Amino acid sequence: MKPSLKYGIFTGVYLILYFLLISLFGLQSNPIYSFFNVIILFMGIYYALLDISKGKYQLKYLDGIKTGLMTGVYATIIFTLFFGFYADNNPKFIRDLIHHAGMDVNFAILILTVGTMGAVSTMITTFLLMQYFKRKLRVTK
After folding, report:
1. Element spanning 7, H or E
2. Is the pTM for the entire model greater than 0.85?
């Protein structure tokens, strides 16, 4: 199994577990807690990049970028699908989330926003981590 798929699935599952954990405390409708999603995503991409760099004297920069982006894409798809299922089955959650966010959006825009946030976080995290790996390892173009 490719590291991007393996760690993408793990990261998606951890994002879901984190969401369910904060749901136990009734905090899932407060958008501020989505900040920790970036930390979970960061760790998933980091371990995927660490996995492909093991045993390699040289890591190709584009291979690292591709692995990081695909890891995040898999995790984002998994979490967004779960989020859509959760939101569709909990109308009170949508009302509370819209209230905390201070805007009036429909279900489709809400799901699109979650997916977009995941995609943007993935791109930023991947490029930041590749700067770290570029210095840590001997990365080639």
Report:
1. helix 3-24
2. yes
